[in-house]
Amino acid sequence: MIVRSFFIIFSALICLFNSMAYGDIGADDIKARVNVFMDDHIALLAEDYGDNVRIEYSINNLDSRLAMKDCPDELETELKSRNNIGRVNIRVSCNEQNPWSLYVPVEVDLYRPIVTTLIPVAKGEIISRSVLEMREMDISRLNGTYFTQMDDVTGMQAKRPLRADKPVTANYLEPPLLIRKGEQVQMTARSGGLVVKIAGVALTDGHKGEQISVRNNQSKRVVEARVSGPGQVAIQL
Protein backbone atom coordinates (compact mmCIF):
# COMPACT_ATOMS: atom_id res chain seq x y z
CA MET A 1 0.00 0.00 0.00
CA ILE A 2 2.85 2.36 0.92
CA VAL A 3 4.68 1.51 -2.30
CA ARG A 4 1.54 2.10 -4.35
CA SER A 5 0.90 5.46 -2.67
CA PHE A 6 4.49 6.49 -3.28
CA PHE A 7 4.15 5.54 -6.96
CA ILE A 8 0.98 7.63 -7.33
CA ILE A 9 2.60 10.65 -5.67
CA PHE A 10 5.75 10.24 -7.77
CA SER A 11 3.69 10.04 -10.98
CA ALA A 12 1.77 13.17 -10.01
CA LEU A 13 5.02 15.05 -9.40
CA ILE A 14 6.34 13.97 -12.80
CA CYS A 15 3.17 15.24 -14.49
CA LEU A 16 3.40 18.50 -12.58
CA PHE A 17 7.05 18.92 -13.54
CA ASN A 18 6.27 18.27 -17.20
CA SER A 19 3.42 20.76 -17.18
CA MET A 20 5.73 23.36 -15.64
CA ALA A 21 8.58 22.66 -18.05
CA TYR A 22 6.42 22.37 -21.14
CA GLY A 23 3.39 24.49 -20.33
CA ASP A 24 0.98 25.85 -22.91
CA ILE A 25 1.70 29.10 -24.73
CA GLY A 26 -1.29 31.41 -24.38
CA ALA A 27 -2.64 34.47 -26.14
CA ASP A 28 -0.60 36.87 -23.99
CA ASP A 29 2.62 35.03 -24.87
CA ILE A 30 1.82 35.18 -28.59
CA LYS A 31 0.91 38.86 -28.36
CA ALA A 32 4.15 39.65 -26.52
CA ARG A 33 6.19 37.95 -29.25
CA VAL A 34 4.31 39.85 -31.97
CA ASN A 35 4.97 43.12 -30.12
CA VAL A 36 8.70 42.42 -30.19
CA PHE A 37 8.52 41.73 -33.92
CA MET A 38 6.49 44.89 -34.57
CA ASP A 39 9.04 47.08 -32.78
CA ASP A 40 11.65 45.97 -35.32
CA HIS A 41 9.17 46.25 -38.20
CA ILE A 42 8.29 49.85 -37.30
CA ALA A 43 11.99 50.76 -37.12
CA LEU A 44 12.44 49.45 -40.68
CA LEU A 45 9.38 51.35 -41.90
CA ALA A 46 10.74 54.56 -40.39
CA GLU A 47 13.99 54.04 -42.32
CA ASP A 48 12.11 53.43 -45.59
CA TYR A 49 9.67 56.34 -45.31
CA GLY A 50 11.89 58.87 -43.54
CA ASP A 51 11.71 60.64 -40.21
CA ASN A 52 8.59 62.67 -40.94
CA VAL A 53 6.20 59.77 -40.37
CA ARG A 54 4.05 58.51 -37.53
CA ILE A 55 3.37 54.78 -37.26
CA GLU A 56 0.76 53.06 -35.13
CA TYR A 57 -0.29 49.43 -34.97
CA SER A 58 -2.86 47.29 -33.23
CA ILE A 59 -2.94 43.52 -32.85
CA ASN A 60 -6.32 41.95 -33.51
CA ASN A 61 -7.91 40.33 -30.49
CA LEU A 62 -6.72 36.79 -29.85
CA ASP A 63 -8.93 34.16 -28.27
CA SER A 64 -8.12 34.13 -24.55
CA ARG A 65 -8.57 30.34 -24.61
CA LEU A 66 -5.69 29.97 -27.07
CA ALA A 67 -3.21 27.35 -25.87
CA MET A 68 -0.33 26.21 -28.07
CA LYS A 69 2.20 23.58 -27.08
CA ASP A 70 5.28 25.00 -25.42
CA CYS A 71 8.31 25.51 -27.64
CA PRO A 72 11.74 24.45 -26.30
CA ASP A 73 13.38 27.11 -28.46
CA GLU A 74 12.47 30.75 -29.08
CA LEU A 75 9.34 31.34 -31.14
CA GLU A 76 9.92 32.48 -34.71
CA THR A 77 8.02 35.41 -36.22
CA GLU A 78 7.87 36.69 -39.79
CA LEU A 79 5.79 38.96 -41.99
CA LYS A 80 3.54 36.92 -44.31
CA SER A 81 1.92 39.65 -46.40
CA ARG A 82 2.73 41.31 -49.72
CA ASN A 83 2.33 44.73 -48.14
CA ASN A 84 4.13 46.00 -45.06
CA ILE A 85 1.47 48.52 -43.97
CA GLY A 86 -2.30 48.32 -43.66
CA ARG A 87 -3.62 44.90 -42.69
CA VAL A 88 -0.73 42.46 -42.40
CA ASN A 89 -0.32 38.92 -41.09
CA ILE A 90 2.46 37.88 -38.73
CA ARG A 91 3.23 34.18 -38.57
CA VAL A 92 4.28 32.89 -35.17
CA SER A 93 5.74 29.41 -35.27
CA CYS A 94 7.61 26.74 -33.37
CA ASN A 95 9.83 24.52 -35.49
CA GLU A 96 11.03 22.11 -32.85
CA GLN A 97 9.83 18.62 -31.81
CA ASN A 98 6.12 19.23 -32.41
CA PRO A 99 6.01 22.08 -34.93
CA TRP A 100 3.06 24.46 -35.07
CA SER A 101 2.28 27.89 -36.46
CA LEU A 102 -0.49 30.47 -36.38
CA TYR A 103 -1.19 33.79 -38.10
CA VAL A 104 -1.85 36.97 -36.17
CA PRO A 105 -3.57 39.87 -38.04
CA VAL A 106 -2.11 43.29 -37.30
CA GLU A 107 -3.32 46.71 -38.45
CA VAL A 108 -0.41 49.03 -39.32
CA ASP A 109 -1.26 52.71 -39.89
CA LEU A 110 1.39 54.99 -41.36
CA TYR A 111 0.78 58.74 -41.24
CA ARG A 112 2.80 61.26 -43.26
CA PRO A 113 2.26 64.74 -44.77
CA ILE A 114 0.92 64.45 -48.32
CA VAL A 115 -0.64 66.81 -50.88
CA THR A 116 -4.41 67.21 -50.46
CA THR A 117 -7.11 69.46 -51.90
CA LEU A 118 -8.19 72.50 -49.92
CA ILE A 119 -11.29 73.12 -52.07
CA PRO A 120 -13.05 71.14 -54.84
CA VAL A 121 -11.29 71.06 -58.22
CA ALA A 122 -13.31 70.73 -61.43
CA LYS A 123 -12.44 68.38 -64.27
CA GLY A 124 -10.08 70.08 -66.73
CA GLU A 125 -8.97 72.73 -64.23
CA ILE A 126 -5.27 73.57 -64.06
CA ILE A 127 -4.20 73.00 -60.47
CA SER A 128 -2.58 75.89 -58.62
CA ARG A 129 -0.96 75.96 -55.19
CA SER A 130 -3.92 77.95 -53.83
CA VAL A 131 -6.17 74.87 -54.00
CA LEU A 132 -3.65 72.59 -52.27
CA GLU A 133 -2.40 72.01 -48.75
CA MET A 134 -0.11 69.57 -46.98
CA ARG A 135 -1.88 67.39 -44.46
CA GLU A 136 -0.90 64.38 -42.37
CA MET A 137 -2.92 61.39 -43.52
CA ASP A 138 -2.90 57.62 -43.14
CA ILE A 139 -1.47 56.24 -46.39
CA SER A 140 -1.74 52.56 -45.44
CA ARG A 141 -5.02 52.10 -47.32
CA LEU A 142 -4.60 54.84 -49.89
CA ASN A 143 -5.23 53.73 -53.48
CA GLY A 144 -3.04 55.29 -56.15
CA THR A 145 0.26 57.16 -56.11
CA TYR A 146 0.22 60.09 -53.69
CA PHE A 147 2.46 63.16 -53.64
CA THR A 148 4.67 64.60 -50.91
CA GLN A 149 5.61 67.80 -52.78
CA MET A 150 3.18 70.48 -54.02
CA ASP A 151 5.46 71.25 -56.97
CA ASP A 152 4.73 67.78 -58.37
CA VAL A 153 1.03 68.66 -58.62
CA THR A 154 1.05 72.38 -59.42
CA GLY A 155 0.42 73.02 -63.12
CA MET A 156 -1.12 69.61 -63.75
CA GLN A 157 -4.66 69.27 -65.09
CA ALA A 158 -7.50 67.51 -63.27
CA LYS A 159 -8.49 64.46 -65.29
CA ARG A 160 -11.64 64.11 -63.17
CA PRO A 161 -13.28 66.15 -60.39
CA LEU A 162 -11.43 66.29 -57.08
CA ARG A 163 -13.33 66.66 -53.82
CA ALA A 164 -12.14 68.96 -51.05
CA ASP A 165 -10.01 67.65 -48.19
CA LYS A 166 -8.95 64.55 -50.12
CA PRO A 167 -5.51 63.21 -51.10
CA VAL A 168 -4.37 64.08 -54.63
CA THR A 169 -3.35 60.90 -56.44
CA ALA A 170 -1.74 60.43 -59.84
CA ASN A 171 -4.78 58.75 -61.41
CA TYR A 172 -6.69 62.05 -61.05
CA LEU A 173 -4.08 64.09 -62.92
CA GLU A 174 -2.74 64.51 -66.42
CA PRO A 175 -0.37 66.96 -68.13
CA PRO A 176 -2.16 70.15 -69.21
CA LEU A 177 -3.69 70.23 -72.68
CA LEU A 178 -1.33 72.39 -74.75
CA ILE A 179 -3.02 72.11 -78.14
CA ARG A 180 -6.70 71.82 -79.01
CA LYS A 181 -8.23 70.32 -82.13
CA GLY A 182 -8.62 72.98 -84.87
CA GLU A 183 -6.01 75.27 -83.34
CA GLN A 184 -3.35 76.89 -85.51
CA VAL A 185 0.09 75.54 -84.64
CA GLN A 186 3.66 76.08 -85.70
CA MET A 187 5.43 73.00 -87.01
CA THR A 188 9.19 72.93 -86.55
CA ALA A 189 11.33 70.52 -88.55
CA ARG A 190 15.04 70.12 -87.81
CA SER A 191 17.72 68.38 -89.82
CA GLY A 192 21.25 68.97 -88.64
CA GLY A 193 21.68 72.74 -88.51
CA LEU A 194 18.67 73.36 -90.76
CA VAL A 195 15.44 74.52 -89.10
CA VAL A 196 12.19 74.86 -91.06
CA LYS A 197 9.02 76.34 -89.54
CA ILE A 198 5.64 75.79 -91.18
CA ALA A 199 2.12 76.79 -90.17
CA GLY A 200 -0.48 74.08 -89.74
CA VAL A 201 -3.71 73.14 -88.00
CA ALA A 202 -4.05 70.53 -85.26
CA LEU A 203 -6.46 67.70 -86.09
CA THR A 204 -6.53 66.35 -82.52
CA ASP A 205 -5.99 67.59 -78.96
CA GLY A 206 -2.50 67.15 -77.56
CA HIS A 207 -0.67 67.11 -74.24
CA LYS A 208 3.06 67.76 -73.95
CA GLY A 209 5.04 64.91 -75.49
CA GLU A 210 2.04 63.37 -77.26
CA GLN A 211 2.03 62.69 -80.99
CA ILE A 212 -0.85 64.30 -82.90
CA SER A 213 -1.96 64.71 -86.52
CA VAL A 214 -1.34 68.13 -88.10
CA ARG A 215 -2.35 69.42 -91.56
CA ASN A 216 0.18 71.57 -93.40
CA ASN A 217 -1.57 74.82 -94.38
CA GLN A 218 0.36 75.09 -97.65
CA SER A 219 0.53 71.53 -98.98
CA LYS A 220 -2.60 70.28 -97.13
CA ARG A 221 -0.58 67.20 -96.32
CA VAL A 222 -1.28 65.53 -92.95
CA VAL A 223 1.78 64.65 -90.89
CA GLU A 224 2.42 63.26 -87.42
CA ALA A 225 4.08 65.68 -85.01
CA ARG A 226 4.98 65.70 -81.33
CA VAL A 227 3.64 68.42 -79.02
CA SER A 228 6.56 70.46 -77.67
CA GLY A 229 4.75 73.43 -76.11
CA PRO A 230 1.64 75.62 -76.36
CA GLY A 231 0.85 75.88 -80.09
CA GLN A 232 4.15 74.20 -80.95
CA VAL A 233 4.82 70.80 -82.54
CA ALA A 234 8.02 69.14 -83.72
CA ILE A 235 8.38 67.05 -86.87
CA GLN A 236 10.99 64.34 -87.21
CA LEU A 237 12.72 64.48 -90.60
From TrEMBL:
Belongs to the FlgA family. GO terms for biological process: bacterial-type flagellum assembly. It comes from the Bacteria. GO terms for cellular component: periplasmic space. This is Flagella basal body P-ring formation protein FlgA. It is found in: Periplasm. The keyword Magnesium does not apply. Its main location: periplasm. CDD domains: SAF_CpaB_FlgA_like. NCBIfam families: flgA_cterm. Residues 1-23 form the signal peptide. Keywords: Bacterial flagellum biogenesis, Cell projection, Cilium, Flagellum, Periplasm, Signal. InterPro entries: Flagellar_FlgA (IPR039246), FlgA_N (IPR041231), SAF (IPR013974), SAF_FlgA (IPR017585). It comes from Oceanicoccus sagamiensis. Residues 112-174 form the SAF domain.
